[in-house]
Amino acid sequence: MNIFITLDYEIYFGKNHGTVERCIIYPTSELIRIAEKHNVRFCFFVDCGFILKLNEFRKQYPQLEKDYSAITKQVKYLSDSGHDIQLHIHPHWEDSSYNGERWIIDVSRYKLADFNETEIADIVYRYKKVLTDITSKTIFSFRAGGWCLQPFNKIKKAFIDNGITLDSSVFKNGFYTSDQYSYDFRNAPDKAIYHFDDEPTKEVENGVFIELPISSIRNSPLFFWRLFLLGRKNPYLHKPLGDGTAMPAPGYRKKLLTKYTVNPVAVDGYNAYLLEKVLRKLMKKKFEHMVIIGHPKALSRYSIRKIDEFVEKNKGKHNFTTFTKMFKNKE
Ligand SMILES: [Zn+2]
């Protein structure tokens, strides 16, 4: 099995966005420690719109210099040491600004598809360029902010023009719609990898894009009751390391606590408890790839320990790898 541990590298977008140190730098340094201990590499989907905004506002507000330099240094370090740096787009940065004390985050245009095609072309070009400039490497993979990459036909041309050929945003059977979010992966093929053209859930043999979906799991409400209770009972172990709050997702928490739901397989917090179980399930299905999502900001002391154990236990039997290693030379 090829195992891709992928991390969306970003601050929070809710009422309290948190600090760069606690949401990004420190938890990522813990991942670097695990990677170096076991000699494995991870994939980081970097929220490059944030780097562009830091760059824009740091001249006016020198206190942002520290955040800008910490992030660009860490991204460069990750890339130089063999981790993947790939494109993660949260286009709401286009409408957001810094007021001298905090970021004023406007999520009224949250998805790429909320912009017109000229704007999308410009965003994809600039967001990709900032990562290429930092890493001097080829960026060809994408994860949509909040899984929102539909309708894809609005985005397709910008991806082709900018050499984005692999997407890893879909998780089979996921679906959710709110004022900000919109994704529906219920029709996605039940496969570890496939090609597509106009719609990431519709397989097209020899399609121009590769979809490497995030592995998904069906959770009982009981699992989330346990997750929320553990956070209360033992915050030291189970609270996220990031110090911000998530963007509201109306009805989502209630859905998790009352119904069976399909969720992406994740290393975030208590979700890491399920890694072994999912790996066994995917092996039984004869899948060749397992894609795990995570966010440095949402890691907990518990999940860091679990990632360490998971890698330790499986590094001899399975291949912990990156998009660049697996796909770059095979295009
Ligand atoms: Zn994100």
Tell me briefly what this model is.
The chain contains 11 helices and 15 strands. By secondary structure, the protein is of the alpha/beta class. The two termini are 20 Å apart.
Characterization of the model:
The protein is α/β, with parallel strands linked by helices. The protein has one domain: Glycoside hydrolase/deacetylase (TIM Barrel), CATH 3.20.20. Helices cover 37% and strands 17% of the residues. It is built from eleven helices and 15 strands. The strands form four sheets. Strands 1, 2, 3, 6, 7, 10, 11, 14 and 15 form a nine-stranded mixed beta sheet that branches. Strands 4-5 form a two-stranded antiparallel sheet. Strands 8-9 form a two-stranded antiparallel sheet. It is globular. It starts with a strand and ends with a helix. The chain binds zinc ion. The site of zinc ion has 6 residues, from loops.
> What coarse outline follows from CA principal-axis ratios?
globular
Largest sheet: 9 strands, mixed
Q: Return the CATH class.
A: Alpha Beta
**Low-pLDDT runs:** none
Spell the H/E element sequence.
Answer: EHEHHEEEHEHEEEEEEHHHEHEHEH
Number of strands: 15
Question: How much strand?
Answer: 15-25%
CATH superfamily: Glycoside hydrolase/deacetylase
Query: What would the CATH topology be?
Result: TIM Barrel
The CA-CA distance between the termini, in Å, is 20 Å
If you compute it from the alpha carbons, what radius of gyration comes out, rounded to the nearest whole angstrom?
19 Å
User: Which second-level CATH architecture applies?
Assistant: Alpha-Beta Barrel
Number of helices: 11
Number of domains: 1
Mean pLDDT over the full residue set: 96
> Which range best describes the helical content: under 10%, 10-25%, 25-40%, 40-55%, 55-70% or over 70%?
25-40%
SS-based structural class?
A: alpha/beta
